[in-house]
Hints:
Layout: H1 2-8, E1 18-22, E2 28-32, E3 35-39, H2 44-57, E4 60-67, H3 72-75, H4 78-84, E5 89-94, H5 96-109, H6 121-139, E6 144-146, H7 155-166, E7 171-173, H8 184-194, E8 207-210, E9 215-218, E10 248-255, E11 258-262, E12 265-266, H9 269-282, E13 287-293, E14 299-305, H10 307-323, H11 326-344, H12 351-363, E15 369-376, E16 379-386, H13 394-397, H14 409-423, H15 425-428
Parallel strand pairs: 3-4, 3-6, 4-5, 6-7
Antiparallel strand pairs: 1-2, 8-9, 9-14, 10-11, 10-15, 11-12, 13-14, 15-16
Amino acid sequence: xxxxxxxxxxxxxxxxxxxxxxxxxxxxxxxxxxxxxxxxxxxxxxxxxxxxxxxxxxxxxxxxxxxxxxxxxxxxxxxxxxxxxxxxxxxxxxxxxxxxxxxxxxxxxxxxxxxxxxxxxxxxxxxxxxxxxxxxxxxxxxxxxxxxxxxxxxxxxxxxxxxxxxxxxxxxxxxxxxxxxxxxxxxxxxxxxxxxxxxxxxxxxxxxxxxxxxxxxxxxxxxxxxxxxxxxxxxxxxxxxxxxxxxxxxxxxxxxxxxxxxxxxxxxxxxxxxxxxxxxxxxxxxxxxxxxxxxxxxxxxxxxxxxxxxxxxxxxxxxxxxxxxxxxxxxxxxxxxxxxxxxxxxxxxxxxxxxxxxxxxxxxxxxxxxxxxxxxxxxxxxxxxxxxxxxxxxxxxxxxxxxxxxxxxxxxxxxxxxxxxxxxxxxxx
Length: 429
């Protein structure tokens, strides 16, 4: 009865910034927030959040923006915009190199793909952003962090699991779970009322999230899984039918599972990914359209562009075929669904993910060499690979005469493997 009464009434917060939240048990608890660090993108949700926090709770607000490769255009003018909506200041951190080296590359070494398709672009960025939300909160002597993720999605879980893992006592404010606004139309009306500049419109209200690894699109017109995405929506890739008629060959060098050079030129992790994004995007490589299973239990339609990441995953797998022992590779492959699900669900800092990474990285120590891929009208195909760590033996596999393999040995091998089948035959009858 008490929970129902609370759910039916709007919570009035005092001027001293008392915030009322639901906890897991369903009982209402009070939390005071003196200073809040907001994960700020300058988009619709976070623009409203800064103004709303100040107006409702009278607390100090610091905006934090992580540059994870969303593009210069999305970062221009953010400080002035954040201050116009009520933030004391903006903290902007360039995390592009750390994002690629410490999050994208470990997932690449694990061949992490969620539900067979999704390369986890958003999922990999959130724990990094959450890490720095906590660091900024400590530096600013703030007692709470805030994000703009909705109560329906995965990002709320990713941000908060990261926050609690790295700062167990941190307070978390999630406006979508407490305020009266129920959808993007309400937010746009709020912006119009309070003169908050936004890029989303009522005619094109789908949500975008871009970083150096990918760009995602969801919501709005994309909520109907039958609706084909508008070609004008895509930012990173050319339509395959409009891509060049001449294929492009790209050579990628790996060391211990990490890409280090493109076409013979050694590059930093972020620069390497930027280069591959450009090459793959020109040839229409890296688009997917999926209906995925969110952690909270519902299905969601998402459209993703991961141009450079598609090249890296394809090339990495091609090199592993040369360099990994069969059972090593099969063992790692068994871990892919579990690893990818942990990342997707927000458990980057969980001990099981970290333990899996140690084993995966040990397996990857011999994945060094070069791979040549062919880009052509949306496709990325391995057409060559070589390595001084290769386990491939042309002398053993040749169809011509050889002196290293006795074909007669296969008879005993087959009969031993068939023994249990032969002994079990009467039972099957």
